[in-house]
Amino acid sequence: MTDILIYGDTIRSPELRHEVHVPIPDAFLYAEKGDRRIVVLHSLEIPRVRQDAPELEIVAPEQLGSDELYSRGLRGWEVMLELALRACRELGIVSAAVPESFPLGHADHLRANGIELTVERDLFEHRRRSKNETELRGIRNAQKACEAALDASRELLRRAQPNGAGLEVDGRPLTCERLKRVIEDVFADRGVEGSDMIVSHGPQTAVGHNEGSGQIAPNEPIVFDLFPRDKATGCYADMTRTYVVGEPPGEVKTWHRLVKEALDASTADVKPGVNGRRLYEKVCDIFEGAGYKTQLNKEPGAVLEDGFFHGLGHGVGLEVHESPSMGRIGDDLVAGDVVTVEPGLYRSGYGGVRLEDLVLVTDDGYEVITDYPYDLRP
Questions:
Q1: The model's pTM
Q2: Distance in angstroms (rounded) separating the CA atoms of residues 157 and 91
């Protein structure tokens, strides 16, 4: 059995948060030796970890001689390096797999003192693929927050009226910024954080990651792409819907119909063992059959800005973008994966339509976690 070392904090390290579900802001060492799972923790954190993660073996820095190290006048970072080395020696770890985020300073110190470290990206990605119950609970809560935020946003869209310059509600311009504030308020009430989001309109919607700004106009596409993080578990959701206030143009109606068809067709094939590229190819076939360019039928070397220019989806969990991939490079799906399915069609300088659902891969198929309508009108 491979020994494991992870060093970081559980706020920013998804590899560590997957093993230690408690939010801990300061960096610490996590180790696996055989069946033992050990954390080296300051007394500030010990009571919480003892209560919320009783399966973990806790080693305090004092047990590794931290008082003696401080008495020698070592600086804080020097103490942390030496404690990591002493922990390895105490546990009998002479070689270990580490994630690619393992700090270089710690790696240099351990290697210089005889500890062999190997970066194993695939190993750590695989460990996080099948979501545990804590992570699924967080993903579902974040997804419900997305749906509640869209409810509040659509209520504003329904009340919007043209004022010559664009849309207004209650005498004030309806802007992307105003909608984002509404969404942030809902997120705060639901225990999630998500100030980074996409609420874009018109030509902005043809640029996949344009966050959106300015006053919204009638009869133009409005894309909401929300990806909040559940505060309690550190897990994300990811969801996209497209709306038009007023009369949707014919081109936008066609896009919406085709994108929904592609969403349904690709979701229906989700199950363990299916490769993400196969799902992507199905969507590309639908769009190519309707006369649109994709990454699979464009000329080699051509920069694609119209049609379907991105992948079909990605994993979601402790990162908003993680394995598996579902695009030109695809991974085989496994039970417990949570993936997005997000086809879209776009025309540069005009706009686009994207729909996105969260899907859980089950033992024999799938469950759509997202529970929200697809109407083009709000």
A1: 0.94
A2: 60
